[in-house]
Amino acid sequence: MQAEQDAQFQEFVRARWSHLVRTAYLLTGDVHHAEDLTQTALAKAYRSWRRVSRSDSPEAYIRRMLVSCNSDRFRKRRVTEALTAAPPEVAGRDEAVSWAGERSALLAALAQLPSKQRAVVVMRYWEDLSEAEVAEVLGCSTGTVKSQASKGLAKLRTHPGLAQVMDGPDRRQVPSGQGGIR
How far is it, in rounded angstroms, from Cα 115 to Cα 91? Predict the structure, then answer.
């Protein structure tokens, strides 16, 4: 029985590892912290895999664990992170450089959000979860999700790094309103 659960867990990790690390990366802003966070959440999930695997959505369960583990990381020790304005490595192509600049600006802007707002924005707009699903993952009301998303998006809209990206020569025409980062 234990061998069957181990195999099921390993299959889940193989299938969802990169997706979970990407989500953790958006929560932490650092690839190394993201990998550590994902490993921590998966280690906790492994200990209770029987219960986790029987849930309606094991991935949603582990996603909630990612958010909780990320919050715990800041509770245990106050970590200050400073994201640089430019990526440490320069890509060879102009398109890659432009994309890296946009990505860097977005990560810097996300890093400025309080952890709850960041979690809501990542879950709602990166993970494309509904407000009810985000509320379930974070253990709060849908009203809280709506207000945190609204406040988070407002801060992102006024972030100078994102304004530079959006005011560049290839500015994307994005209407303001509901349903995405505008």
Answer: 30
For 62-101, what is each residue's pLDDT tens digit? Answer: 998 998 888 877 666 555 566 677 766 655 555 544 556 6
The answer to whether 41 touches 64, Cβ cutoff 8 Å, is no
Judge if pTM exceeds 0.70.
Answer: no
Judged against a pLDDT cut of 90, whether residue 35 lies above it is answered with yes
Read off the amino acid at residue 80: T
